[in-house]
Prior knowledge:
The complex is a heterodimer of chains A (315) and B (336). By secondary structure, chain A is mainly α. Chain A contains 14 helices and no strands. In chain A, helix 3 (78-85) packs across helix 14 (284-314), helix 4 packs parallel to helix 8 (179-204) and helix 4 packs antiparallel against helix 11. Chain B is α+β, with helices and mostly antiparallel strands and 336 residues long. Chain B contains 8 helices and 18 strands. In chain B, the strands form 4 sheets. In chain B, strands 6-7-8-3-9-10 form a 6-stranded mixed β-sheet, sandwiched between helices. Chain B has a 5-stranded antiparallel β-sheet with strand order 13-17-14-15-16, with no helix packed on it. In chain B, strands 2-1-4-5 form a 4-stranded antiparallel β-sheet, covered by helices on one side. In chain B, strand 14 (271-280) and strand 15 form a beta hairpin. The radius of gyration of chain B is 23 Å and the shape is globular. The mean pLDDT of chain B is 92.
Amino acid sequence: MAASAPSQVYSAPGRRLSLTERLRLGLNNGRISATLILLPPALILFTLFVMLPLGESFYYSFFNWNGYGVPTDFVGLQNYQRIADHSVFHVAVGNTVKIVAVSLFLQMPLALLLALLIYRKTPTNAFFRLVFFLPYILAEVAAGLIWSFVFDGNYGVSASLAQSLGTEPFFILADRDWAFVAVMTVIVWKYFGFHMMIYIAALQGVPEDLVEAARIEGAKRPQIVRYVLVPQIKPAIIVSAFFAIIGALQVFDLIIPLTNGGPSNQTHTIVTYLYTFGLTRLNIGFGSAVGVILFIVAITVAVFYQRFFMKRGQS
Amino acid sequence: MAEVRLQNVNKSFGNVTVIPDLNLTVPDGSFTVLVGPSGCGKSTLLRTIAGLEMPTSGQVLIGGEDVTLQEPSNRGISMVFQSYALYPHMTVEQNIDFGLRLAKIPAAERKERVAEAARILALQDHLDRRPGQLSGGQRQRVAIGRSIVRHPKVFLFDEPLSNLDAALRTQMRVELAQLHQSIDATMIYVTHDQVEAMTLADQIVVMNAGRIEQVGPPMELYEAPQTEFVASFIGSPKMNLLPGSAIARDDVRTVGIRPEHILVDRTGGDWAARTQVVETLGADTIAYMVADGLGDVTVRLPGHVRLKAGEQLYLTPERQNLHLFGQDGRRMKEAA
C-alpha cells in the first residue's frame, strides 16, 4: 500500500513557507475554512451598516440636499464652511470637550473610589454594586425624563426642595449658565457605574498576597491603593478612559429629553447639533458633513489612543 | 531577634474552628518549621503571627511584647509568601526597596541596604529587571531580599519553595539554611514537605487538625515520635505502622518500624513477605512488599542490594528500633 501524503506541512527552521505551502497548512489546520465561514457575516454587516452609510454621508456632505430625491445641488465644501462658522457648533464642541473632561477627571475617579470601597466579595458590597450600577441599566431616554422631572422648578423634586427651604423655585435646565452643569451631573450619574464595574472586575483579579505583602511592609490603605492596586489595574483604567472619551463624543439621548439642546442652544453636543441642525431641519447634506467630522474626530482619538496608551498599558 | 510565644490561641472562621487552643514557644534565633498536612492550620497560624489574621481568642507575643492587636507592620516581622507576592510593575530594586521607602529611611541608607541584600542573594545583576523577567529561584530570592532589608525580628515563610522544581528546591533549601546561619534571626517556616522540615529546622512543630502533635528537634521527632500521626508524617519513606499482632502483643494497637530498621533474608525471618515494587535510587533500594497477615511493608536497603518484583523474602524488624503505640495512639513508655 502506498504511503499517504503527510497531512501537515513542515518547514526547516528559518525557511519561509511558500504561498502554496501556507495555503495547504491553512486548509489542513482549519484556519481557512474558519475564516471563510466566520468572516463573511461580520464583513457584510459591517459593510452594510457602517462602511456604506459612511461613504454615503461623505458623498452627501458635498450637497445641499433635503433627503428627498437624488442630491443634485453640489456645493463643494460649503457645508463644512458653514459648520466651521457656526457659533452653535463651537458651543457643541466646547460642551463635548467638557463632557470628556468631566468623564476623565470626575466620573472615573469617583468610579475608582467607589470600586475600591466595594470590590471585595461580601453581601453588603454586592448590594451597593447593584445600586450603583442601576443608573447604567436604565435607558438613556428614561433617565433623561426622570432627571427632567427632578429638575422641574414647577412640579419636580427641586420644586419641593425649594418650597421646603422657603426659596424661589430654580429652573436649572432653563438657566443658560447652569443647564449644562445639570446635564453633566446626569451624565456622571448615568455612567459612573459602568466604569466602577470595570474597576471592580480588575481589582478582584489583583492577588490578595500583594496587598498583604504591602501591609506587612508598612503600607497604609492610601499607599496600598497608590503603589499596588492602581498600578495593577492600569490596563483596566486605560480601557475605561477609552470608553469614557468615545462615549462622551456620542452623548445624545440623555440631552434630548433633558434640554433638547437649549436654552439658547447652550447644551448641544456634536451629536445633538447634528440631529437638530441636520435631521430635524432636513439639511441632510449639512448633517452628513457634521457626521463626517464626528467620525474623523472619533477615529483619530481611537487610533491615537490605541497606539499610545493601550499598547503602553499592555506592556 | 526575638522569641515568639502563642498563648491559648484560638482561630475560628464562622462556625469552623481551625485552631482550637494552641500554645507554642518559638525560641529566639531558632529556625522553627510548622509542618503538617494541607488544611491542618499551619498557614493560618503563621498568618496569625504575622497579623494578617486576628486570633478569635488568645495572645501573640513577639519579643515579650503582646502584639495581638497590632498591625502587621508594627510587629517587627517580615513574610515570604508562597506566591512570592512581588509587585510586577516594579523592578527588583524597587521591590526590595519598597518597605524602606514607606518607612522613610534616608536614600543613602536604603541604597546601602538594598545593595547588601542583593549581594547576599546574588541579585546584583538583576536589580533593573522586573519580576516577570526572572526565573522562579530568582523571584524567590527577591522575596527574601525584601524581607532581609527591613531587618525584622522574625522572618515568616509560607511554603516558599513549593512553586520551585525539585532541583531548585534543594538549592534554595541550602541557601535558606546558610541565610539563617549568617543573619541568625528567628525564622518560622511553614511547609507540608517533611524533608524541608527535617533539613532546615532546629525545632519542628508537627500540626494536625489545628492541634500540635509534637514539638522538638528533627531527630527527636524521627527517633521518638510521640503519636502515630507524627510517626507516619516524619520520615521518607514513611514509617511502617503494623498491627500489634506483628510482634504478638495484644496491648499494643500499632507497632512502628522504619524502613531502614528491617532486615531482609531469603532463608528465614519473623515475617514472610512478597516484593511488589522495587525502586533503585542509587544509594538506596526501596522495596515495597506485602507481609503475610500484616499488609504493606516498606524496606530500605543499601543501593547494591538487588531484589526482583514477586520475590518471596523474610523480614525481621530490629527489636531496639520498634515504636509501640497504645490504644490512644500515643507512644508507650516501655520498650518492645
